[in-house]
Amino acid sequence: MAHGPALVIALPFLGAFVCGWMGSRRIGFARWGAVGTAAIHAFIALSLLSRVTRNGPLTYATGGWPAPLGIEVRVDILGAVVLTLLGCGATLILLFAQSHEPAELGRQAERWYWPLCLTLLGGMSGLVIAKDLFNLFVMAEICSIAACGIISVDSRPAALEASFKYLLLSAVGSGAVLLATAMLYSVTGYLDMDAISRALPAAAASFPRVTMGALALYLVGFGLKAALFPLHVWLPDAHSAAPSASSALLSGLVVKVYVVALARIGYQVWGPDLLWRSPAPYVMFWFSAGAMFFGSIVAIAQRDIKRLLAYSTIAQMGYIFFGLSLRSENAVAGALLHVFNHAVMKVCLFLAAGAMIARTGKRDLAGLSGIARSMPLTTAAFTIGALAMIGVPGTNGFISKWYVALGALDLGRPLYAVLVVASSLLSGAYYLPFVISAYFGPDPGHPRGREGPPAELAPIVILAAVCVLTGFLPRFPLQHMLEVAKSFFALR
Amino acid sequence: MHDLILSTIAGYLLPLITVYGAYVITHGHLSPGGGFAGGTIIAAGLILAALSWGFHHAEKVFNENSLGNLDTLGSSGYVLIGLVAVFRGSLFLTNLGAGFPSGTPGKLFSSGAVWLLGAAVGVKVAATVFGLVARIWSGGGASGEVDEP
């Protein structure tokens, strides 16, 4: 798989073109083509992961031109783990969507849906392994537009409004990223991340304001796309109005890749020394602390299950940014681990919620009470996802929150660790009442014994199992993320 | 509405604009411009003709079906040309190293894969730009339904 880095980007795009073309002739081809492409992507990502963990980072010079002349992509451990997450996550989501979206979208919209999902997958993969800042911007643009597409694909008014809001705000974010890239290019003369990283100390000494401005713009641009509080305003509408499979893609995977991009820029381009001489981590710290509380408190007031999950995403993104803004290996490893863990549990929750909504036709929490009696497996998976969100020991959420709190203690700031714990308790305040009412609440007459078809149920159960497995055996993602955090802090 | 002056002039201009667009696409490796610029020029010519003769004439040749075919041909052609290099054992999108003929530098058929990539981009851009305008003109929504005025 020496060509893996190029194939993980090229194949989803090729699949998208072909599925879009075949969609008007044989919709079945587009459906299964999308799942098949995502599965091949997952296979390539897994083989890249095994290769990268054995042989170290894999750099791929597109067209045979090495950087800084050409455009390179690099798959390091972080990239390989996130690629695996994207490939496997997208495969499961698209498998779920097979039995779900045709009914939810209708024939016309469905033709556009599968190519858009694959385009999004290709864009995300490119964003995660891009080594060139302009490539990073282009891939972020592809992701934004494809994401708007999968929100508004069925042309419902609420979805159109949400996706227009997202389109405008993410255009602002893209503009900020492009401007920051131009500023860095003007003071360093490179677009390649490694070359910039070498030239940046000198550039920062001669042009402190330009480099500081570029960092601020990256923080705002990628922060906006990753829904960092107070730049999150588009997220609740977009993630709750989208079709269920889209919500899972967006909330589980799309917001994560921007975090990875921001982490790369902060730690691999700027480097820890230069980063902590700027105010950016402190700004990120306060924003993320706000996110952990704001997201949870607003989520408590929600009556719609998908809006609840969307606000919970804001709170959980707060943990990730919180960990990244602490100058401690454990905290950064915890944050990157939470990127992985939150993706698994949020996809599980959104798919389970989507299945419940499809069976009952109800979206409000009260209407779904007693659902456990008619959909026991789906509700069990939802419960596991919810417990993982809260960070109950034995689930993956516990491990990542533990490492973030550990990082806070490394810094000698026990108060920060208390913040993490307090916000976790808050997330219990909105997940647990729903779980309790799902099991013990009155049953308003849900259809009996109506679990979804196996293709719909399997992804939900697999993801819930992964939540528990990586909670008890956290070695696979944790060890890699600790290594990544160590390499981040080894840079000067 | 039919306008004699407009439709006559458009009839003279359409071949010129299309040939110029094709020139810009095929000379992308020699002169300024390339696939994107040339594709937009061709699409602009088609839009001019469609506006002055009516979009229903354009529908006969460039309907959703044929535009979709061209679109897919251009975009997947680009990826496939990139993959040719992979199958020949070089890195993705490698040009001369993967055995594409270099030709005589400065001549039209030179530069190996760049010429083909430019053509693929040109086809894709022309089809997409014209398709977008035709779709807006026909009032089609995201899912292709036409609202009657």
Task: Write up this protein.
The complex is a heterodimer of chains A (492) and B (149). Chain A has a domain at 284-492. Chain A has a two-stranded antiparallel sheet with strand order 1-2. With 492 residues, chain A is mostly helical. Chain A is globular. Chain A contains 18 helices and 2 strands. Chain A has helices at 4-23, 27-55, 77-105, 107-129, 133-152, 157-188, 193-206, 208-225, 235-241, 244-275, 280-300, 305-324, 329-360, 376-390, 396-410, 414-440, 454-472, 475-490; strands spanning 58-61, 72-75. In chain A, helix 12 runs antiparallel to helix 16 and helix 15 (396-410) packs antiparallel against helix 16 (414-440). The model of chain A has no long low-confidence stretch (mean pLDDT 91). With 149 residues, chain B is mostly helical. Chain B has one domain (4-138). In chain B, 66% of the residues lie in helices and 0% in strands. Chain B has helices at 4-26, 35-53, 55-61, 64-87, 113-138. Chain B starts with a helix and ends in an 11-residue tail after the last helix. Chain A binds chain B through residues 3, 6-7, 10, 13-14, 17-18, 20-21, 24, 60-64, 106, 108-109, 112, 152-155, and chain B through 64-65, 68-69, 71-72, 75-76, 79-80, 82-83, 85-86, 90-95, 97, 141-145.
Key features of this structure:
heterodimer; A: 492 residues; mainly alpha; two-stranded antiparallel sheet; 18 helices; 2 strands; B: 149 residues; 66% helix; 0% strand; disordered C terminus
